[in-house]
């Protein structure tokens, strides 16, 4: 059925006390949110409240699976059937994506790993399994054999302009996809078909070569000629500029390469994850463990993105699963510092208001500021996953 709880690391008395207090607040907050939200699909809050599908692209938007992920995590931790029922109801809504998948892209793993695949892993639901396998087929269908990568977004002149591209989007790969490819690893294990893993491995190795730089920083986007696979460009993406270091992209690298190591045993992925992790740790250590939106941007204005910290923390806790005792301490301690710093500065524990973790930023260049330092659903998901990992109560979703 797949992997269940992750190993619980040993903590100092101070960190253990913080963890217990945070978990208790989390149980209260999520119980209240689940009662209010049910099978809605939230993204960000307006005046302290979530609204259903308030996102561009409607049901296909890439963040729509994170609420179900939160629900499955809380069901694993508490056994409260309310979470399971809400997760299953929300999954039924997401199933529409698989009927008309023309708007699906590389992020389909974000939609179905925390929903259908989580459901199957936890309950054995066969309909959920089939949905997960359909999603894996859609993701595999985006593979470009000439360049050995999974194509990112669909054709969009607006996307090309926003992301700073000068070459067609049909040959783009992005770092975000590294954490979607576990859907393919899972599909191979479920079906015995090695093609899914073959595609995932090739994509991960292309990302190692072209996305991860020698110092552990990452490009967000790499553009290839879609016909020949020839490298063409590194568009700037959601960070400050071309050649900068968008922090959420860095976090995807830390977690994604750690997961590729878990699924394949290829030590090169573990080494890449470590290199990216050390780069993130070094940068967050000089900003009091609060992640900037970009680690290579002007000192002013200061812009934070807590989602990068939450994802990085989960990646570090995953890394800690695969190293020795004395090395493990580095990653667990750094993860705790990120979590505690963001909690102290940005968390909202009022059970009457939606969202937990504020301070999320979607991209660096935000003209009206509406997507800068705001609550974003995946910040909450990864915060919850990290807390439950530390408690030994998490459900493995990736």
Automatic annotation (TrEMBL):
Residues annotated as binding substrate: 107, 176, 248, 252
Sorted UniProt keywords: Hydrolase
Domain of life: Bacteria
Keyword Hydrolase tagged: yes
Biological-process GO terms, alphabetical: polysaccharide catabolic process
InterPro entries tied to this protein: 6-hairpin_glycosidase_sf, 6hp_glycosidase-like_sf, Glyco_hydro_88, UG_Glycosaminoglycan_Hydrolase
Molecular function GO labels: chondroitin hydrolase activity
Catalytic site: 107 (nucleophile), 176 (proton donor)
Family: Belongs to the glycosyl hydrolase 88 family.
Name of the featured protein: Glycosyl hydrolase
Natural source organism: [Clostridium] clostridioforme 90A8
């Amino acid at each position: 059925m797949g992997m269940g709880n992750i190993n619980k690391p040993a903590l100092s008395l101070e960190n253990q006390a913080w963890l217990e207090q945070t978990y208790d607040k989390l149980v209260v907050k999520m119980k209240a949110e689940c009662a209010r939200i049910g099978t809605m699909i939230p993204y960000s809050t307006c005046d302290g409240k979530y609204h259903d599908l308030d996102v561009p692209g409607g049901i296909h938007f890439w963040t729509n699976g994170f609420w179900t992920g939160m629900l499955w995590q809380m069901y694993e931790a508490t056994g409260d059937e309310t979470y399971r029922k809400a997760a299953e109801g929300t999954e039924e809504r997401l199933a529409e994506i698989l009927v008309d998948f023309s708007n699906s892209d590389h992020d389909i793993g974000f939609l179905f790993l925390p929903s259908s695949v989580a459901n199957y892993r936890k309950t054995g639901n066969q309909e959920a399994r089939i949905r997960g396998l359909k999603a894996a087929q859609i993701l595999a269908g985006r593979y470009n054999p000439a360049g050995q990568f999974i194509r990112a977004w669909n054709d969009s002149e607006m996307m090309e302009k926003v992301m700073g591209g000068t070459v067609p989007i049909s040959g783009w790969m992005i770092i975000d996809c590294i954490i979607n490819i576990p859907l393919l690893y899972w599909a191979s294990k479920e079906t015995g078909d090695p093609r899914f893993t073959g595609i995932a491995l090739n994509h991960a190795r292309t990302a190692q070569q072209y996305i991860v730089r020698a110092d552990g920083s990452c490009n967000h986007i790499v553009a290839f000629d879609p016909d020949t696979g020839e490298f063409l460009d590194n568009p700037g993406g959601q960070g400050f500029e071309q050649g900068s270091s968008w922090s959420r992209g860095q976090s995807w690298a830390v977690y994604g390469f750690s997961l590729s190591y878990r699924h394949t045993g290829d030590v090169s992925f573990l080494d890449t994850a470590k290199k990216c992790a050390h780069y993130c740790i070094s940068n967050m250590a000089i900003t009091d463990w609060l992640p900037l939106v970009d680690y290579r941007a002007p000192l002013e204005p200061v812009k934070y993105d807590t989602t990068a910290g939450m994802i990085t923390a989960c990646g570090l806790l995953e890394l800690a699963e695969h190293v020795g005792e004395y090395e493990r301490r580095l990653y667990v301690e750094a993860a705790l510092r990120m979590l505690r710093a963001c909690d102290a500065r940005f968390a909202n524990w009022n059970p009457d208001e939606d969202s937990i973790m504020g301070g999320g930023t979607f991209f660096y260049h935000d003209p009206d500021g509406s997507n800068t330092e705001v609550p974003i659903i995946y910040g909450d998901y990864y915060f919850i996953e990290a807390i439950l990992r530390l408690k030994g109560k998490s459900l493995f979703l990736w």
